[in-house]
Fold this protein.
Amino acid sequence: MKQLSVFLENKTGRINELAKTLGKAGINMMAFSMAETSDFGILRLIVSDVDKAVEVLRSNSFAVTVTEVVCISCPNEAGALSGVLEQLAKNDIFIEYMYAFSENDSANVVILPNNIEKCVATLKECNCGIKENF
Amino acid sequence: MIWNPSKECMSRDEMHALQGRRLQKLVSYVYHNVPFYRNKMQQMDIAPDDIRSIDDIVKLPFTTKQDLRDNYPYGLQAAPQSEIVRVHASSGTTGNPTIVGYTRKDIAVWQEAMARALTAYGVKREDTFSVSYGYGLFTGGLGVHYGVENIGATVIPTSTGNTEKHVRLLRDLKITGIACTPSYALYLAETLEKMGLGKDDISLRVGAFGAEPWTENMRKEIEERLGLKGYNIYGLSEIVGPGVSYECCKQNGSHICEDHYYPEIINPETLEQLPYGQQGELVFTTLTKEGMPVLRYRTKDLCTLMDGECECGRKTVRMGRIMGRSDDMLIIRGINVFPSQVESVILEMPEIEPQYMLVVDRINNLDTLQIQVEVRRDFFSGDMGSMLAMKKRLSDKIKSVLSIGAEIKLMEPGSIERSQGKSKHVIDKRSL
């Protein structure tokens, strides 16, 4: 799955400007997570239309880049994620960062593994769901 | 007390005559020993014989810091190397530093100038004096050191750093005088208080502060917290170092050792000499220097000159407070910083836009420097680790070029204000 990464200064109202830009273009944000430091942050987000989002953000002078990530889809119940993560760890797959959101009966976990191909293969082997798009 | 009344209280006529004789001798000396000045004078069609009095100084060419850099290292030196006993260098870090060689006599004149300053502050041979300027290539430490020895007081060469040890020495050795930057004096006061001590635990009486701009409010605060009287000291390495001018007990301007360092004020645009009382750029000619004399050196410092006898009895010309610079140099924690130095680092880094803003402030009495730069859109990878590594790399480069640390702030592309015409690269929030 494709994720957008946007460089943002720590400035009041800046996230709203981004949300407004996407909203005007009719793009829905499915999930996001913010990594922050004292002077800047990187907003990672999953949107309904990646290409269009990149286009409108770039034309509004945001620094945006597309990052390939993996979206795990597992049952929305206790212990489900742990089973998946155990398999990943066993196969030596390191996770740089992750964030999650739930959708009715399924729980979606976005991860950036150190090796995407190996991660996808491992998930397929253990019959874990992978979400390709929304 | 006046160290050398025969010079410091000389009548104006006698002083002008002395300056005229010294200038004639100086011009002939540099004409015959420094090709740079000979060429300049020949281009302007003037010969040493055209200089008959101090007023003829306006016929002479100016010297700039760039001239010193262009003639690195010894191009402007007039004395043979065998006569040079010491070399100091300025903190210029882009391009060449400026090298200044001193003969034995130059050192003696400098000691004399510093002795006049210290005596004007009321320092006597009974005093114990701490020199807390940096020792080394910088002129501050050794310049004051030799002056203190010259008047026969006890010098404690504390230099900079290890402030707690310094406080203990102040207390235990009953140090009565100190020379340092005004911001270091405030830091010292803070350290003293942090150690649970106060001004009554130490014996400081006199402080000589300079090498960076400071305000009357800072003076009051330093005086209150350290229990001393604070005096201004002015100097620059291209002329000699500290001691070029100094305040007396009246504190109405700083007396210039004008029998050695002749001052003028010029209009920095037209380069015309301005009368006393008008603000302009301060220019010095080293009337008696042998090692590396300079003709009409442009300090870029903006101030006024005052004549007339001072109530203290001295008759030498006084300079007012430095009101600014005619170039864009900043003085941050006593270090000279040019925005162009930051620019040269930024231009070397493809990850950031060639835009920047320096934000200077003073927080808890210490100067702070923040450098705002813009991340280039096509270099943004979305990876936090590489962003932080880039920030660290920039920070390290800045530190090695400026010799002071700066906080780097990464900004979004396009967010630093672009100005029409002359670009603005500095926001100085210090109220100096």
